[in-house]
């Protein structure tokens, strides 16, 4: 796409992705300790919007397949229209809220979840969003919004892997999971 657009700034931003990923990994060194807290978690929700709507789906799937627990994935908007009723005190909610046009909606949702006494795990690059969480999963602050899913997925994947390990589940060969699908 950069070649089609012939924009040097676009190409330069893409060239920065490895550095964004390295910074994200550096910021996540505390995740193995966090996972211990969710050893006995039985369910969870993953929430995102905009570019990170798909990030919520990916992280919910990763936790489902590694931890063998039900994890619902929703957009911020869809979650407010019914599923929010499942939130009780201590209910874990993984909220992907990096800076950008959707962040004000995610901040508002985080405030609502806190009022319901949910336990929020927040993936973000802003202090405002991270401060609303019980668990902060920080991102580097200089990632363009359109690239944020590449880095936002990393702390969630690390969380899923470490939760599986503390629950005693195999992470390299999850039970019942086939990486090959045969279609006819």
Task: Walk me through what this model shows.
With 184 residues, the chain is α/β, with parallel strands linked by helices. It has helices at residues 2-5, 8-15, 17-27, 31-37, 53-67, 76-80, 103-115, 127-131, 148-167; strands at residues 44-48, 71-75, 92-96, 119-124, 135-138. It has a single domain (2-167), classed as 3-Layer(aba) Sandwich (Rossmann fold). The chain has a five-stranded parallel beta sheet, with helices on both faces. Strand 3 (92-96), helix 7 and strand 4 (119-124) form a beta-alpha-beta unit. Helix 4 crosses helix 9. The two termini are 33 Å apart. The mean pLDDT is 91.
User: Would you state the CATH class?
Assistant: Alpha Beta
By helix and strand content, what is the structural category?
alpha/beta
CA-based gyration radius: 17 Å
Number of strands: 5
Task: State the helix count.
Answer: 9
Low-confidence stretches: none
Largest sheet: 5 strands, parallel
What is the ordering of alpha helices and beta strands? HHHHEHEHEHEHEH
Number of domains: 1
C-alpha end-to-end distance: 33 Å
- Regarding quaternary structure, what we see is single chain
In CATH, the topology is named: Rossmann fold
Large-scale geometry: globular
CATH homolog superfamily: Glucose-6-phosphate isomerase like protein, domain 1
What is the helical fraction, as a range of percent? 40-55%
CATH architecture: 3-Layer(aba) Sandwich
């Amino acid at each position: 796409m950069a070649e089609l657009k012939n924009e040097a700034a676009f190409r330069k931003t893409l060239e920065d992705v490895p550095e964004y990923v390295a910074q994200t990994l550096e910021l996540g060194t505390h995740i193995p300790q966090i996972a211990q807290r969710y050893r006995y978690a039985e369910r969870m929700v993953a929430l995102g919007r905009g570019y990170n709507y798909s990030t919520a789906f990916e992280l919910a799937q990763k936790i489902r397949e590694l931890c063998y627990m039900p994890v619902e994935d929703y957009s911020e908007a869809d979650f407010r229209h019914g599923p929010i009723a499942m939130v009780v005190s201590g209910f874990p909610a993984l909220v992907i809220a990096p800076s950008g046009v959707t962040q004000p909606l995610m901040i508002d949702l985080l405030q609502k979840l806190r009022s319901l006494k949910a336990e929020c795990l927040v993936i973000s690059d802003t202090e405002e969003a991270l401060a609303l969480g019980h668990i902060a999963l920080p991102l580097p602050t200089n990632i363009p919004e359109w690239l944020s899913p590449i880095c936002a997925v990393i702390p969630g994947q690390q969380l899923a892997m470490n939760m599986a390990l503390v629950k005693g589940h195999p992470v390299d060969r999850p039970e019942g999971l086939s990486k090959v699908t045969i279609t006819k």
